[in-house]
């Protein structure tokens, strides 16, 4: 068991200290209680009870080089020796911005913030400021962080007006967010026909990574691009997960469709808190102090984050991390499929480079609505049986399995040794 006596006693304290015992909800899904981590190294994490786990969660995406990559650690240490926060400019933020712009918005500009949540919040305010319009369009099942404008889901089938998915989000705010169906261009067109001249932005995860993993269907992203152009709305590509994961240029390079604004996070901070808004100079110069759309932050462009992010991208630029991570994901995904077939299970597996997820008990998954029909209980059992065998995949059917540059052939082989056994136990127990 990953969760021993020491984790249990920490968990009892945590439940007194934090709502639900945790500081981010998904962490509470590990049952019967979460394990506590002592340290990480390469592809592994070690729990306080001395259990070693192969880590396919990787902090929900940022750690594409694995834990404690030496180049990143060296860059962080070097920055620590120079001090870690100044509230003034440093050269590293320029260098990281130049890297990001090269791959996402050549000739454009960047604003560094601290989380993906802040990035999409700022991008939406920016789009509203630039267009002078109020409404935004998002997709049911896409996640863009924890702020009011995007904590909104689809209302009844007949109405595209959003309803809050969190208590505390006023209905008046939720109504400014219209909700379309992922991979369903017709649902977007319907909204745009009625409200297009009031829509400031269409925000999308180019690969849906918060409903499992669901790739865009042929023509979907291009269709969004065309609709945004036709109605004068801005297209916000939320690449907080996919940015620098699907390749240096993220999903936009991979699928050949460009957003007007890109939001990044996770990987670009090298494992430290970050959010990025990037776009053309014309759009970005609307942000304060150049323009009138407000953004500021004590920790914006944190020097340690800049150092870690820059080192991470420099390592990624060798190409090798992408090769290793994608090969690991390919082998694992093939093994999942092979075992699921041999056990006679219906399943769908979607993999895009180094992220994948399996949906059990279904035959087609092209939308978060399809994903919701998958057998979640069986998925949870599989997570639990893998955990018992020293493998940590996300406890949530609606998150991705990630691999990293540290997931070498040997590491993956170790997982393959226990995979079938875990599948069989999961099926027997569900
Ligand atoms: C696509 C996407 N956008 C935004 C966010 C929010 O990022 P953060 O958790 O850093 O606030 C996430 C987080 O998982 C995400 O997956």
Describe it for me?
The protein has helices at residues 5-17, 70-82, 91-104, 116-131, 171-174, 185-195, 220-231, 250-255, 281-284, 303-316, 320-342, 368-371, 376-388, 409-429; strands at residues 37-41, 44-47, 52-55, 109-113, 135-139, 152-153, 163-164, 177-180, 199-204, 234-238, 261-265, 275-279, 347-352, 355-360, 391-392, 401-402. It has 14 helices and 16 strands. The strands form 4 sheets. It has a 7-stranded mixed sheet with strand order 4-12-11-10-9-5-8, with helices on both faces. Strands 1-2-3-15 form a 4-stranded mixed sheet. Strands 13-14-16 form a 3-stranded antiparallel sheet. The chain binds pyridoxal-5'-phosphate. Pyridoxal-5'-phosphate (PLP) binds next to helix 4.
Key features?
single chain, 430 residues, alpha/beta, Aspartate Aminotransferase, domain 2, binds pyridoxal-5'-phosphate
Q: What is the rounded distance between the termini?
A: 19 Å
CATH homologous superfamily label of the domain at 70-316: Type I PLP-dependent aspartate aminotransferase-like (Major domain)
* Helix and strand run: HEEEHHEHEEEHEHEHEHEEHHHEEHHEEH
Find the count of extended strands (DSSP E, 2+ residues). Answer: 16
CATH fold label of the domain at 70-316: Aspartate Aminotransferase, domain 2
> What is the annotated CATH architecture of the domain at 70-316?
3-Layer(aba) Sandwich
| The top level CATH class name of the domain at 70-316 | Alpha Beta
Strand order of the largest sheet: 4-12-11-10-9-5-8
Q: How much is the average pLDDT?
A: 97
Rg from alpha-carbon coordinates: 21 Å
Bound molecules: pyridoxal-5'-phosphate
Principal-axes shape call: globular
Helical proportion, percent range: 25-40%
% residues in beta strands: 15-25%
Given helix and strand content, the structural type is alpha/beta
Specify the biggest β-sheet: 7 strands, mixed
Number of DSSP helices?
14
**Uncertain segments of ≥5 residues (pLDDT<50)?**
none
């Amino acid at each position: 068991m990953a969760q021993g006596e020491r984790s249990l006693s920490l968990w009892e304290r945590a439940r007194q200290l934090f709502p639900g015992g945790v500081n981010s909800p998904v962490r509470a899904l590990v049952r019967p209680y979460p394990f506590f981590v002592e340290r990480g190294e390469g592809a592994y994490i070690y729990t306080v009870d001395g259990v070693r786990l192969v880590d396919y969660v990787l902090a929900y995406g940022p750690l594409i080089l694995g834990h404690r990559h030496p180049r990143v650690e060296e860059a962080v240490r070097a920055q620590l020796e120079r001090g870690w926060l100044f509230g003034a400019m440093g050269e590293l933020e320029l260098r990281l911005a130049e890297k990001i712009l090269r791959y996402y918005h050549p000739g454009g500009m960047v604003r560094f913030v601290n989380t993906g949540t802040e990035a999409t919040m700022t991008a939406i305010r920016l789009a509203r400021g630039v267009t002078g319009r109020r409404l935004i369009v998002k997709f049911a099942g896409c996640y863009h962080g924890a702020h009011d404008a995007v904590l909104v889901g689809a209302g009844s089938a007949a109405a595209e007006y959003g309803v809050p998915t969190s208590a505390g989000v006023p209905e008046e705010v939720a109504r400014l967010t219209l909700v379309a169906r992922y991979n369903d261009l017709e649902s977007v067109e319907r909204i745009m026909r009625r409200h297009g001249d009031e829509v400031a932005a269409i925000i999308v995860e180019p690969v849906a990574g918060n409903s499992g993993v669901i790739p865009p269907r042929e023509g979907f992203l291009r269709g969004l691009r065309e609709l945004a152009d036709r109605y004068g709305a801005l297209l916000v590509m939320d690449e907080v997960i996919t940015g620098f994961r699907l390749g240096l240029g993220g999903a936009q390079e991979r699928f050949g469709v460009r957003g007007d604004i890109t939001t990044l996070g996770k990987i670009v901070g090298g494992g430290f808190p970050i959010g990025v808004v990037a776009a053309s100079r014309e759009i970005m110069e609307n942000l304060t102090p150049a323009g009138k759309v407000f953004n500021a932050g004590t920790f914006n462009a944190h020097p340690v984050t800049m150092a870690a992010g820059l080192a991470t991208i420099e390592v990624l630029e060798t190409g090798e991390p992408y090769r290793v991570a994608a090969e690991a994901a390919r082998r694992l995904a093939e093994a999942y499929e092979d075992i699921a077939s041999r056990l006679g299970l219906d399943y769908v597996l979607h993999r895009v480079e180094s992220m994948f997820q399996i949906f059990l008990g279904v035959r087609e998954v092209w939308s978060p609505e399809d994903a919701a029909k998958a057998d979640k209980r069986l998925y949870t059992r599989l997570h639990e049986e893998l955990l018992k065998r020293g493998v940590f995949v996300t406890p949530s059917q609606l998150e991705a399995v990630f691999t990293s540059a540290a997931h070498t052939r040997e590491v993956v082989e170790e997982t393959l040794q226990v995979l079938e056994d875990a599948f069989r136990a999961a099926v027997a127990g569900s």
